[in-house]
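Course assignment 3, question 2. Fill in each field.
Student: A.L.
Task: Predict the tertiary structure for the chain below.
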Amino acid sequence: MSRSVPSGTVHFSDEALAKIVDALPLCAPPERVALLPQIFRAWAQEDLREHLSREGRKAARKQEDQLHSIAKQARGLIDAFEELPPTAQFLAALRPELYQTQQTLLDVTAVSIEVARQRLDHGVAWLTDLAEALHEPQPKMLPDTQTRNHLVTLDLAAIFQLVSEKRPTRQINTGTGKDYGPFWTFASAVWPVIFGSSSGLSAANKRWATKVSGQRELARNNVCNASGLLGRDLTCAERCTVERRFGEYSSFVANLQFRHPDLWQKLREPR
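Answer field:
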């Protein structure tokens, strides 16, 4: 599926999946490569769909500002109406009813007056509810495009490692300054299927690699500190615990064993 502004569920066609499989390292275990279509289709229905449904901070902030402006105007309208003397309030409430029925003040009936009062009560109540509701604190603003792209790259890195059994890394050609390498080739095959082009991939790859590098350094420092406090080297299990604490992981792969136990079991089967 090609589109510049993704929304909803991305469809990974057989043709697209074949190209993605071809982009994997030749040494990737065939039995894991065979599971890649299942993995991608599950990802498209779950975490990827959630990532792509997120709005940008700029758009969300603009929308929130507009709603606050409406709340302010609603409150101002209520205050202005309450400042009117009773007679003026009555006439203001009555005029919409007269306008709808094409009547004049000389044609006013008891029914018209009752309908006008009901509409007035409902209108003021609705405006009051609107003003109060729009001033309520809202949930934390949704991530922006950069964060969305980072989440997609994080998942791609985890899927790459899961299928190829190779750690994803960012490699730069010193002559051209451009990205290359096994993970880049793989991500380049997937990105246009999601976003319609490769735009944003290089920046997302750089951001992901920078963050991963910083977290690995933090994990190493904490392993050294823990070893110093204990007066011995950490066991493999202890080291893994520390690294997991300071690492960043794909929620899709982390939850794969719970959401798709049969698929997870196939991935964990010894070769």
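Instructor remarks: The first helix runs from residue 14 to 22. The beta strands are 171-172, 179-180.
Grade: pending
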